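Protein entry
_____________
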Amino acid sequence: MLALTETPMPTPTMTVAPEAVTPGFVGFAVIVIIVLAVILLIWDMNRRIRRVRYREEVRDELDAEEAALAADEATETDADLPIVREGDEGDERS
């Protein structure tokens, strides 16, 4: 018969005041400070990444300009050289 009777479960009573458990203003202030710090760090990181990307683009443009100038100089110096044929080599020296 013991199995048929239910024993009442004790109901928990609050032993701690709810105001003491919540984070309160200090917890809110700490979270706001952390959020602001993360936003500032992300902003600074994006600025630095953008700066590196722009520097690389400028470097690529300068390299392309130098290559174009070198190619122009090479074609100019080749055009200024006299055309020497195999049979004419001895005639120009004399």
About this structure: The longest helix spans residues 24-80.
